[in-house]
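To: structure subgroup
Subject: Chain for Friday's discussion

All,

I'm putting the inputs and outputs inline so they're searchable in the archive.
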Amino acid sequence: MPDTLRKPTLDKDLNKFTRIGEATGSLNQFYVAPGLALVFVALCAVFAAVAVTGQPGAVIIVAAAIIGAYMALNIGANDVANNVGPAVGARAMTLVTALIIAAVFESAGALIAGGDVVSTISKGIIDPAAVSDPAVFTSAMMAALVSSAMWIHLATWLKAPVSTTHSIVGGVMGAGIAAAGVDAVNWPTMGGIAASWVISPFLGGIIAAGVLYFIKTAIIYQDDKIAAARRWVPVLIAVMSGTFAAYLALKGLNHVMSISLGLAVVIGIVIGAGSWLVARPLVRRQSEGLENRNQSLRKLFGLPLVFSAALLSFAHGANDVANAVGPLAAIVHTAELGEVATSVYIPLWVMAVGALGISIGLLLFGPRLIRMVGDQITKLNPMRAFCVALSAAITVIVASAFGLPVSSTHIAVGAVFGVGFFREWYTGNSRRRADYVTRHHFDKPDDDAKARKGEDQRRRLLVRRSHFLTIIAAWIITVPAAALLSGVLFVIIRMMIVSG
């Protein structure tokens, strides 16, 4: 063999060392996130120990702080993806930018407008009289926290965005049944929660599809797209601003001051009108010199998407942090006073555990679900992602008006599904789209080839069915799975206490 074709032994050895180094680096990166999460949990334990030193039930409070921190990390890893995932999938912001925005606004929402009072029996799922013994109540809340956190952890690993509210409700229900029997459960309330499994994604999907239909009809398939965008994009921005203002007033600021639905709507109308006046000249200036094509339109929806991601994160932090710290606050109250109350105030250090835990969980583990929601269910662009964000806010307002229990996770993911399934239907059935394509694309010699390509596109599935089925299955089994796991954990905890 010629010398030029023979690889020197030294080069082979160096290549082996290089590959070993790359493998070691990859392995180290795999352990970095779990290691930092463990550090955070340990710091929470130390902080709780310092905060409750000398108080009754200090050991129980420290143990609950550890569990609450673990729960908060999992909420950040799973639930927050719904707020920023569509904007990332639409390329309106980078993943790093989305993580920073979500972490900052989640923490701000939790600390500024987070719930200062929370029901200890989690939304009236369990009759308080059934778990009136402090030791039984504490065991039930611990079992509920651990089971819901473990279920959300598993769902995140499976790339299934699930409702943290449903997880904690299932955990409370399972522990309550194990503690006091089936009769302890408030079944009408559970029926309302079960109805929300259908109501939330259906409403989110329908509204998102309706907004996308309007955008396609009024802007995309118009001969002069730029003129249509100048007319309608400010209106859409005004609707989004007004809806988010009402959403934040109703679901975020309501923790600070009492705001009725009517007042929230008035606030939304005022903010929306102001936003329209500001958006008109800005959109006109931004659209100057743009080509008359869809790629140009996407630039007009980028900035609104960034704001929507920030506002959704703020509102999520204000509301869903109670899922992590509500049972923890109840345990702290029970351990300190030796009695079970129907409502308790959340101490600042407990709220900080929830807020920081959600943000750290998002930064360490959130990218997995952000990519799933934003990129892997269906292809999103800024216009479609705008429909998802607007749908999430509108659906919450509509549901609140009718007193319907809804899940923000189910709404956002349902909106993504709605956009994808609507595009499948619209591509194959819209006469407006067919006429537009015929007028603008089939005027060259290769018309037949383009027609065949258009027919193939009409038959193409735009929503990944495997992800759709996985997520739907996870939604259906969230409450029963969390309940079963919680019941088992409650029995184990009680056995450990009795034997100890």
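Points worth raising on Friday:
Residues 209 and 419 are 5 Å apart (CA to CA).
Strands lie at 117-119, 343-345.

D.
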